[in-house]
Design a protein that fits this description.
heterodimer, A: alpha/beta, B: 11 helices, about 0% strand, elongated
């Protein structure tokens, strides 16, 4: 079966007056229809740039896709015309942005905005489109969807707004939903509700989901696979359970150690020493080696490719020796 | 706007309509402009006499029961001329800025949205026009096209359109960065659709304020052009050419010039006050 989305060696550079920044550097992954993938990483590691590139929404200038392929449903996104991209956006692939406070236009009612998306992509009368909007709001669990559809964004709470944004993204039944930190701007109880909702909707609509987050906890119960990004490239890609049970890359291990846990009693959370390298001054070799306690000579000189099984791979030279065996055992 | 205000639950937003009603200046401004529009529309039915009807017997009379505002040197009833003159002044004073806004807002949105060469070309062109004083530019255009009603409208539209271009351009640049614009692109809208559906409504507030303030300017411009003989042509009355006619005998018969001048003052005052009131209500910059 063909994958719904195939990303191959994607590279995005930012052309700034102070030099070229390699925001995304050779990212590859696959996503089957109905599957969900989490892209995890720190701020500035290229997650959002990757997501925007998938829909060809990169702000240009300064960003430009300089290499690689993106195939969506067998169609080459890199060669798609503007008109074709406009057709795809909102209908076949949809995006949920981080901050629901600002992704809705303040001068139109929520229902009008959702209906607008319907009318862009389907032939529908204004009344029919508005009815679809109400239905979509009902689907995302909004009580009294009729009233909500006629409300303006400032009249809704943050959680309600994010539900409305999700309704807008799903109203045309996209095959791929990209959610860029959908819960970051919400408080914790609402976060849980929105994640529950996304899980239910994934099962109901069969949409493939790419979830971008820096929160491993968010990833844990929503996605099938996880891609961990560091400094513009994927350093580990594996089923979600494996990532938690047997992280292969030292960076992933560090991230997991840095998560507070109820079982372990600690006075101080462990951290990963050092900071993310500046994109303008990337270290040679493995980009993680200055912060890695397993770093050896080879790490300084050569960048590791993704190694290991197709279902669990990591970009680390140390992996060849012992981590891989552990990963393999747990995967089996 | 009204429709929206009624559903608003945000207390800060609810305060706005009340502030609008509570402000005396707002009420006066709105009443003045509304009265002027009524006078312009109903002119022929209100005017007690034919504004063109001359009478040498009744020339240059002071105000009386028969001629409320007196008569001019041709014996025409000044009250009727002021009333009918409202039509010319408002027709030109409203149409000119509205045309300027239609062209200027579109050009400004294009410049603000696309930036780059589009922006440079449009902005430099409007800078070129703005380097002339508004009145001088109007006089030049009117002189070039030949005097008349349409000329006055075109001259005012050209003289004012750079103002709208600038305003729409900078407002568009701000709105463009809003995430809901990104969201709309991600939903599959093209640039023109986004400008119409999402940018225009969001910049409408400051544009409406500017429009009412520039209408005041346009009324002055129309009076100035007519005064110079480039606007409304005699014998048709307009406030500007009434002042010019009255200039001939300002000491002996000051009434036509005085009442026409008062009409201009009231109209400009009315639109300015309305503009200020709208600004207090709509302009986000002044929100506390």
């Amino acid at each position: 079966m063909n994958a719904l989305l195939e990303v191959d060696d994607l590279s995005v550079h930012l052309f700034t007056p102070r030099g070229v920044v390699r925001a995304v550097d050779g990212v590859s992954f696959r996503l089957e229809a109905g599957q969900s993938l989490g892209i995890v990483g720190e701020s500035g590691c290229g997650k959002t740039m990757t997501a925007l590139a998938l829909m060809r929404l990169l702000p240009s200038p300064p960003a430009r896709i300089v290499g690689g392929h993106i195939r969506f449903n067998g169609e080459d996104i890199m060669d798609a015309t503007d008109a074709r991209l406009r057709q795809l956006r909102g209908s076949a692939m949809a995006m949920i942005y981080q901050d629901p406070m600002t992704t809705l236009n303040p001068v139109f009612s929520v229902g009008e905005q959702i209906a607008e998306v319907v009318r862009l992509h389907e032939h529908a009368t204004p009344q029919a489109a508005f009815a679809r909007a109400v239905e979509a709001l009902h689907q995302v669990g909004i009580p009294e969807p009729d009233r909500c559809a006629r409300a303006y964004p400032h009249q809704l709470s943050g959680g309600m707004r994010q539900r409305a944004v999700i309704a807008m993204a799903l109203v045309c039944r996209p095959r791929l939903l990209i959610a860029d930190e959908p819960t970051t701007a919400l408080d914790v109880t609402i976060q849980a509700q929105i994640l529950d909702l996304m899980r239910v909707l994934r099962d109901e609509t069969g949409a493939a989901i790419i979830l971008i987050t820096h929160d491993l906890g968010v990833v844990a119960d929503l996605v099938d696979d996880v891609a961990v990004m560091y400094a513009g490239s994927v350093v580990e890609c594996a089923p979600v359970a494996d990532v938690f049970a047997a992280p292969a890359h030292p960076y992933t291990q560090g991230l997991l150690r840095a998560m507070p846990s109820l079982e372990r009693k600690l006075h101080r959370l462990p951290t990963i020493e050092g900071t993310v390298p500046s994109p303008a001054a990337m270290p040679p070799g493995c980009r993680f080696h200055p912060r890695c306690n397993l770093a050896r000579t080879i790490c300084r000189d050569h960048r590791p490719p993704l190694l290991g099984m197709p279902e669990h791979s990591a970009a680390c030279w140390a992996l060849t020796e012992f981590e891989l065996s552990i990963a393999h055992v747990t995967a089996a | 706007m009204n429709d929206m205000a009624q559903r608003v639950v945000d207390p800060a937003a609810v305060r706005q309509p009340r502030a609008l009603v509570g402000n005396k200046l707002t009420v006066i401004g709105a009443l003045l402009t509304m009265t002027l529009v009524m006078i312009a529309v109903l002119g022929p039915w209100i005017a007690p006499q034919d504004p063109l009807d001359q009478s040498f017997v009744a020339a240059s009379q002071p105000p009386s029961a028969e001629h409320w505002f007196g008569t001019d040197s041709f014996g025409r009833d000044v009250f009727s001329r002021v009333i009918i003159g409202t039509r010319a002044s408002l027709a030109i004073g409203l149409t000119g800025p509205i045309m300027a806004a239609l062209i200027g807002v579109w050009a400004g949105m294009l410049a603000g949205w696309f930036g780059g060469w589009t922006d440079r070309l449009l902005s430099r062109f409007s800078d070129l026009l703005m380097s002339f004083p508004t009145l001088l530019l109007g006089v030049m255009i009117a002189a070039a096209l030949g005097p008349g009603f349409q000329t006055a409208i075109i001259a005012i539209a050209i003289a004012l359109f750079p103002r709208f271009l600038r305003l729409a351009r900078s407002a568009t640049q701000v709105v463009r960065r809003e995430p809901f614009i990104d969201a709309s692109i991600a939903a599959g809208r093209g640039p023109l659709g986004i400008m119409l559906r999402h940018v225009a409504p969001n910049i409408a507030g400051s544009l409406i304020v500017a429009l009412s303030l520039w209408i005041a300017t346009a009324i002055r411009l129309e009076a100035a052009l007519s005064f110079l003989g480039l606007g409304t042509q005699p014998p048709a009355p307009s406030w500007g050419n009434m002042i010019r006619d009255g200039m001939g005998d300002l000491v002996g018969d000051p009434w036509p010039a005085a009442f026409a001048g008062a009409a201009i003052t009231l109209a400009v005052l009315g639109f300015n006050m309305l503009g200020d009131a709208l600004r207090d209500m709509l302009d986000p910059e002044l929100d506390t």
